[in-house]
Specification:
The protein is an alpha+beta fold. It is built from 5 helices and 7 strands. It has helices spanning about 55-60, 75-80, 115-125, 135-150, 155-165, and strands at about 5, 10-15, 30-35, 40-45, 65, 85-90, 105. The strands form 3 sheets. Strands 5-7-6 form a 3-stranded antiparallel beta sheet. A hairpin with a 5-residue loop joins strand 1 (about 5) and strand 2 (about 10-15). Helix 3 packs across helix 4. It is globular.
Length: about 180
């Protein structure tokens, strides 16, 4: 059984397993979940990596990453600038029943000095907070428009916006 996983911060958590993980590769085994024996060990639920889908190797070589490795909010793919997004047909058996219309999205940053994960941080930070009484369809339209605006910024403005986010203050943004 796989007994290792990566936390949201990227470090390897858990114990056991047959090989150490560097923390830089994607966790091909899936989403972590705690077991029930009370020892705080984390196990990974087996599933195929989006990197295993036919055509993924070529996209990875071009700097694209699977969007599902960054977020579960697939709606953001529609707002992502077209030159920086690609879609492949979903071929993983466990994912064919997923409500994403059989599409597997890959994205890369519109700006060479900002990682795709930081791009998403900017998109999330730019969303208008809404109360639960707002209709879901209106929220989605609003957030989509706001994501389009952020993803359309020039690189200098995007970098300045990213540096202004509270969790990024004091961090140096470097080319990745």
């Amino acid at each position: 059984m796989v007994t290792r996983a990566r936390s949201n911060a990227g470090e390897v958590v858990g114990k056991g397993g047959d090989a150490a993980m560097s923390g830089n590769e994607p966790l091909d085994a899936g989403m972590p979940f705690p077991d029930d024996d009370g020892d705080d060990e984390v196990h990974a639920l087996a599933r195929e990596s989006p990197r295993s889908v036919p055509g993924a190797t070529e996209l990875l070589a071009e700097g694209f990453v699977p969007l599902e490795e960054l977020t579960g909010a697939m709606w953001v793919a529609e707002a992502w600038p077209e030159p920086h997004r690609r879609v492949l047909p979903e071929t993983r058996p466990a994912m064919l029943t997923n409500p994403d219309d059989g599409r597997l999205w890959f994205v890369r940053s519109p700006w060479p000095t900002i990682s795709p994960a930081d791009v998403l941080s900017m998109v999330w930070a730019g969303r208008t907070r809404v109360d639960s009484s707002t209709m879901k369809s209106r929220i989605e339209v609003l957030w989509h428009a706001q994501a389009l605006a952020i993803l359309g910024l020039d690189e200098a403005t995007a970098t300045s916006f990213l540096r202004s986010l509270p969790h990024m203050q004091g961090w140096e943004i470097s080319t990745w």
